[in-house]
Design a protein that fits this description.
This protein is mainly alpha-helical and 275 residues long. The chain contains 13 helices and four strands. Helix 1 packs parallel to helix 3 (41-48) and helix 10 (184-193) runs parallel beside helix 11 (209-223).
Amino acid sequence: MEKVCASRKTKKYPDVYTVTELRKRAIADGHDSKLVKGLDKSGLCALLGIRWEGKAIKIGGSATDPTKRKAPKKSKELAVWKNRDCIGIQSIKNPSAFKKEELVKLAVKKLEMNKSTAAAMKKSELCYLLKKKGVKVPKIKSIEKKKSKSLKKKVKSPKVKTLKKKSKALSGDCIERSRLKLREHQAFLVNYLKTHRGVIAAFDVGTGKTLTAVAASQCYLDATPKGKVIVVTPVSLQENFRKEMKAYGADPDDPRYELYTIGMFAKKYAMIRFY
């Protein structure tokens, strides 16, 4: 019986590839050794075109757990797929960037990957696998068409009413106008920042730190309408901050907000002292 790709040996699949065997095979096939070392077993199998057998990998800290793997080092192969951005967040300013869902669908369809396995991988890794398999790059025009359709939908009367409600919601006190009511600890911190230079929000996970930051930034902009708010987060939290701005009732495309990843911020402001 030939070797197969699976999370572990079973009665049905007694001969399973190890990660070491897959990496050696991938390097022998001419793939970049640095990138190969950063892929987990499921990623290596997809790269080599070997179908995954049995159940999908479960989160739990095993050697093949995609949430525990080391990320490959950044390179042009990871960052760009032809004219498409594999790392940045898709926006009006950056329409060429892939959405994670778009890459997951491609991986499931073209690489025959399990959806949960593909979803656990980074955008850059999915781009690399799809690129090496010679998958045709989706055109940016298809994204622009979707945007234009969504803009047409916004013109409809039900949407216009919701937009009017938004403008009303943005008037009044910066704490009270939040659509999601701020809890006591959140309101306390926002009020504290009205008279203090800074604070460390050591809240527990899921207690509303992002919404607190949005509310505090709105209070600042109320006091200084011509001011700017610089938001620095890891790449994975950029979209989350925009969602919380919408939840609050603020415009995520407000030009007074500048969102940076840690790396982008370090490059732009490396020579400026803030103290």
